[in-house]
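User: Could you check the structure of this?
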Amino acid sequence: MDTSNPAVFVNAELLHFYVGRRVRAVMQVMRSDGGAVIGISTDEKQIIVKGSPPPAPLTNFVEVIGIVDNEKCIRAEIWTNFGDAIDTLSYNKLCVLANGDFKHLFL
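Assistant: Sure, the predicted structure tokens are below.
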């Protein structure tokens, strides 16, 4: 496993801590607007992902790995379809743990 450039688990509220850094976030896709996809993060806040989505149609939930442009926007490198349903509460708790007292357990 390559650990030279890890992607931190984040929700929309945590993006401002990682401007210019690589992150991973799950969001519910709301709409596609040209070169951007607008969605709702697991903490129920809006998030914008720039960059072309993959050629396959996006499912209701996607994970995006990319570089944070600002506190509301990620520049996508990798898109992963997560299907039509996900436990957003559990994923959001994972984000909180990965950025809190248990940060040392995550890359």
